[in-house]
Amino acid sequence: MVIGGMMQMSVFWLIAMVVLLIIEAVVPGLISIWFALGALAALISALFHAPVWLQIVWFVAVSVLTLILTRPLVRKYVNNRVTPTNADMVIGKDAVVTEGIDNLHAKGAVLLDGKTWTARMDQESEKAEPGETVRVLRIEGVKLIVERRS
């Protein structure tokens, strides 16, 4: 009965490892590789007939240890591919108001680099009139969030 139980745990850890590797392959970025390594350690301990509690300890210990040791490196070298868009280049630039900006009435537009953008003021109570110059603070969706140019 014990050997059958050990075989079942070996199959369990093997299935867990395969599922975690499939998740790793499907999901972008490194998400579950550490747990797959923990499942491998537990599988090896199950093959050596270790008690279930020790298999679980190996799973948790190896998963946590590999996560702690490699996560900072992975974050630095693998998941750092942030590509700025052309839209990001407008932040900090000045724009000319072409349609009065009024957050309360959800209207407003600015002209920037030959393109018209929907715009909202950073401060809800502020307004800007056509012809005024404003500075772009950030982009929210497809709207420029602007402030009065000092």
Question: Explain this structure to me?
Answer:
This protein has 150 residues and is of the alpha+beta class. The protein has 2 domains: 2-77, no CATH class; 86-148, Nucleic acid-binding proteins (OB fold (Dihydrolipoamide Acetyltransferase, E2P)), CATH 2.40.50.140. It has helices at residues 2-26, 33-47, 52-77, and strands at residues 94-102, 107-112, 115-121, 127-128, 133-140, 143-148.
Secondary structure elements and their pairing?
Elements: H1 2-26, H2 33-47, H3 52-77, E1 94-102, E2 107-112, E3 115-121, E4 127-128, E5 133-140, E6 143-148
Parallel strand pairs: 3-6
Antiparallel strand pairs: 1-2, 1-4, 1-5, 2-3, 5-6
* Main sheet characteristics: 5 strands, mixed, barrel
* Strand fraction: 25-35%
| Number of strand elements | 6
pLDDT averaged over residues: 86
Q: Report how far apart the termini are.
A: 81 Å
Tally the structural domains.
2
Question: Total helix count?
Answer: 3
Which oligomerization state do the chains in this entry correspond to? Answer: single chain
Cα gyration radius (Å): 28 Å
- SSE order, one letter for each helix or strand: HHHEEEEEE
The main sheet orders its strands as 1-2-3-6-5
What structural class do the secondary elements suggest?
alpha+beta
Shape: rod-shaped
The parts where pLDDT drops under 50 for at least 5 residues are none
The helix content, as a percent range, equals: 40-55%
